[in-house]
Design a protein that fits this description.
The complex is a heterodimer. Chain A has no helices and twelve strands. By secondary structure, chain A is an all-beta fold. In chain A, the strands form three sheets. In chain A, strands 2, 5, 6, 10, 11 and 12 form a six-stranded mixed beta sheet that branches. A four-stranded antiparallel beta sheet of chain A has the order 3-9-8-7, with no helix packed on it. A two-stranded antiparallel sheet of chain A has the order 1-4. Chain B is mainly β. Helices cover 0% and strands 48% of the residues of chain B. In chain B, the strands form two sheets. In chain B, strands 2, 4, 5, 6, 9, 10 and 11 form a seven-stranded mixed beta sheet that branches. A four-stranded antiparallel beta sheet of chain B has the order 1-3-8-7, with no helix packed on it. Classes of the chains: A mainly beta, B mainly beta. Chains A and B meet through strand 5, strand 6, strand 10 and strand 11 of A and strand 4, strand 5 and strand 9 of B.
């Protein structure tokens, strides 16, 4: 069965520091991978996605993620965090299974940014 | 502005009452979803619909029902609300295909007392 694991529930970084949020997935074929961000009281917004090709993908707000098939990972990174990046981040895998388009989410990582 | 709209934004509901959460999209997406978000559990799929006229059960369907009479609307009904259904509910839509982006509504915060 497909699944997504985000090992870190909470992460705190200082403003200006680098960031890496971890995501591991379980899926039998080449996955479609997504990172979403949720600001407090808001819905989810797509940061970036990977389907094929270059394993390093660029997203909005200065985020990037790298797909590593050997590690079943799709970690999200940002070189310098801004206070406005404080939010909850969700990794997701998309798949077609049983005739329906699944979109399976991890439990999320809540990011706090210290000034 | 194209997008996905949920109503109400928030609701306090007495246990045992019936409640319908509304969801409308104007992007002509075939697939629509209802998720509930609970602290530490992320988003869990309640029901989905691949296209108008079809629906299916997700991960946590008990106590909920959906209908998809047309492409745009995907209401979620709680027939007899219980406190464990207190949650934030998100509706989402996406075009057909596993590699398409999902668009989310702003959520409905439901408290069952």
């Amino acid at each position: 069965a497909q699944s997504v694991t985000q090992p870190d529930i909470h992460i705190t970084v200082s403003e200006g520091a680098s960031l890496e949020l971890r995501c591991n997935y379980s899926y039998g074929a080449t996955p479609y991978l997504f990172w979403y961000v949720q600001s407090p009281g808001q819905g989810l917004q797509l940061l970036l996605k990977y389907f094929s090709g270059d394993t390093l993908v660029q997203g909005i707000k200065g985020f990037e993620a790298e797909f590593k098939r050997s590690q079943s990972s799709f970690n999200l990174r940002k070189p310098s965090v801004h206070w406005s990046d404080a939010a909850e981040y969700f990794c997701a895998v998309g798949a077609v299974s049983g005739g329906y388009n699944k979109l399976i989410f991890g439990a999320g990582t809540r990011l706090a940014v210290h000034p | 502005i194209a997008g996905i709209t949920q109503a109400p934004t928030s609701q306090i509901l007495a246990a045992g009452r019936r409640m319908t959460l509304r969801c409308t999209q104007d992007m002509r997406h075939n697939a629509m979803y209802w998720y509930r978000q609970d602290l530490g559990l992320g988003l869990r799929l309640i029901h989905y619909s691949n296209t108008a006229g079809t629906t299916g059960k997700g991960e946590v369907p008990d106590g909920y029902s959906v209908s998809r009479a047309n492409t745009d609307d995907f209401p979620l009904t709680l027939a007899s609300a219980v406190p464990s259904q207190t949650s934030v509910y998100f509706c989402a839509s996406r075009a057909q295909g596993g590699n398409t982006e999902a668009f989310f509504g702003q959520g409905t915060r439901l408290t069952v007392v």
